[in-house]
Amino acid sequence: MVENQRQADAAAQVRTALVSGSSIERAVGVVMAQQKCDRATALSALREIAARRGVAFAKVAAEIAATAE
After folding, report:
1. Are 46 and 27 in contact (CB under 8 A)?
2. Which of 68, 50, 69 is nearest to 58 (CA)?
3. Structure pTM?
4. Residue 26 and residue 48: Cα distance in Å, rounded?
5. C-alpha triplet 66, 28, 47: angle, nearest 5°
6. pLDDT at residue 54 in the model
7. How far apart, in whole angstroms, are the C-alpha atoms of residue 18 and residue 22?
8. What percent of the chain has pLDDT over 70?
9. What's the rounded Cα separation, in Å, for the pair 30 and 65?
10. How do residues 18-50 score in pLDDT, each as one tens digit?
11. Helices marked H in the chain — which ranges?
């Protein structure tokens, strides 16, 4: 029973990471297109926004990615 719960938790973490990763990539693309910059600059901009707002990087990325949908 405990092992099943651990496996379910691990699977949920993997799903979350995949969704978060795709949001980050979409957000990077949005920033690259808007600011006409490279990937490294876009990532830096996203990190700066997250730090300035005091929120998680993934949350900022998800918000920006949602603007492209």
Report:
1. yes
2. 50
3. 0.69
4. 17
5. 100
6. 97
7. 6
8. 80
9. 7
10. 555 788 899 999 999 999 999 999 999 999 999
11. 2-35, 39-53, 57-67
Sequence-separated contacts (24+) of 48-57 with Cβ below 8 Å: 57/24
Which one, of 11, 65, 19, lies nearest residue 42 by Cα? 65
**CA-CA-CA-CA dihedral for 19, 30, 25, 40, to nearest 10:** -150
Q: Which of 58, 56, 67, 68 is nearest to 18 (CA)?
A: 58
Which two tokens mark 51? 């730090």
Residue 8 structure tokens? 């379910």
Exposure pattern of 28-61 as b/e (b: 16+ CB <10 Å)? bebbbeeeeeeeeebbebbeebbeeeeeebbebb
Residue type at 12?
A: A
Write down the residue that tokens 């990539």 correspond to: 25
First and final C-alpha spacing in the chain = 40
